[in-house]
Amino acid sequence: MEFFSKIPDIYKGAILTFFTLVLIEFIRNMIDRKSLKKSFIIFVKLELSTILKSLERIKLKISEQNFFDFTYLIEIEKNLTELERARASAIYISESKQANYFDLVVEVRSFVNECRFVQNIYYDHKNLFEGRKDSRDINQIFATAQENQHFFDQKKVEKLVAISDLKNKLEKFIDEL
Question: Which residues contact 59 (CB under 8 A, 6 or more apart)?
Fold first, then answer.
């Protein structure tokens, strides 16, 4: 205690002020971090919920009208772009959730690309067989319209299963957040 009595009061006050400011900054940063984490989680939940709704609409369109609706695919891509922009904020969730988050974004992006690919092949060949497109414009894969339709029907079923799988994964991830 003798040591403190030799220190002038002004220095004691400065040291006390310094430690108080450090403590206040630490507490403020903790509160800010919690706030940012909550904001990030809310944002991700909203974006993933929108993707879920779009997947459901795509599923209905495939079942009813025999095509992938590009409007919903574009909507999903916009949501994915927003999720990818928010990638830096993923530091506020645990590493395992980060890995799931990045995997889901990649998986949904892959699904959208596959849907576009399948639909483009189908309609290119359909137009070719109906005489609306020149065979020089595309690489012909199918010899007949029936093969083309069989391919599309097979891929359509695969995509319906993929939608169900994606929906389950997205719902599970939303619940885990």
Answer: 160, 163, 164
Query: Measuring CA to CA, which residue among 39, 37, 48, 38 is closest to residue 174?
Result: 48
Pull the structure tokens for residue 148.
Answer: 């083309």
Per-residue pLDDT of the chain (177 residues; tens, 9 = 90+): 566 677 777 888 888 899 999 999 999 998 988 888 899 999 999 999 999 999 999 998 888 877 788 899 999 999 999 999 988 888 888 899 999 999 999 999 999 999 999 988 888 888 887 777 666 666 677 788 888 889 888 999 999 999 999 999 999 999 998
Quick check: helix, strand or coil at residue 50? helix
Cα(177)–Cα(168) distance, integer angstroms: 14
Token pair recorded at residue 142: 């199918």
